[in-house]
Specification:
Elements lengths: L2 E6 L6 H13 L2 E7 L10 H12 L5 E6 L3 H8 L3 E6 L2 H18 L2 E6 L9 H9 L10 H19 L1
Parallel strand pairs: 1-2, 2-3, 4-5
Length: 165
């Protein structure tokens, strides 16, 4: 079986992420979306919430699974017998960082990295940018699926009310 992993924080998943996932699903027998568990990173949504949101918006893909991992991604890949990492690139700045990571991953465990350029319509997107826009009550419906946009609005309202009280 031809398997690949698409790793990330996905806090929340954007149309840019979904573009890469959909395209990868056409190239590989199985795509595993691996949600990063990182205790040092402050996420708006829990890992379980992110997994549920991703499952919701990727349910139309029969060959896409969602999982989580912590530690080195290459160790996860070896454990799950996944030989390839797929990473979306938005700009040259992404490439600089991702090239270093791909070289280390290959040197550590022989795991290959496939770079896919993000569709131009999504090349500027990041979860951080989407959260910032939403925090100022901006419309994010063209950046993330609507059910997730509503969850994001609710979560940000809860965060704001918690700060005020």
């Amino acid at each position: 079986m031809n398997r690949v992993v698409c790793p990330g924080s996905f806090d929340p998943i954007t149309f840019g992420h979904l573009d890469i996932i959909e395209r990868a699903s056409k190239l590989f027998d199985e795509v595993v979306i691996a949600v990063l568990v990182n205790q040092t990173k402050s996420s708006l949504f829990t890992v379980q919430e992110r997994i549920e949101m991703i499952q919701e918006v990727t349910s139309r893909f029969t060959n896409v699974k969602v999982d989580s991992w912590s530690g080195l991604l290459v160790d996860y890949c070896v454990e799950k017998e996944i030989p390839v990492i797929v990473k979306g690139l938005r700009a040259v700045t992404d490439f600089d960082y991702e090239l270093q990571m791909s070289q280390i991953n290959f040197q550590l465990k022989g795991i290959e990295t496939l770079f896919m350029s993000t569709a131009p319509a999504h090349s500027f997107l990041s979860s951080s940018l989407v959260k910032e826009i939403a925090s100022y009550d901006g419309d994010v419906s063209s950046y993330i699926p609507e059910p997730l946009a509503e969850r994001l609005r609710q979560r940000l309202a809860l965060v704001k009310s918690t700060r005020i009280n």
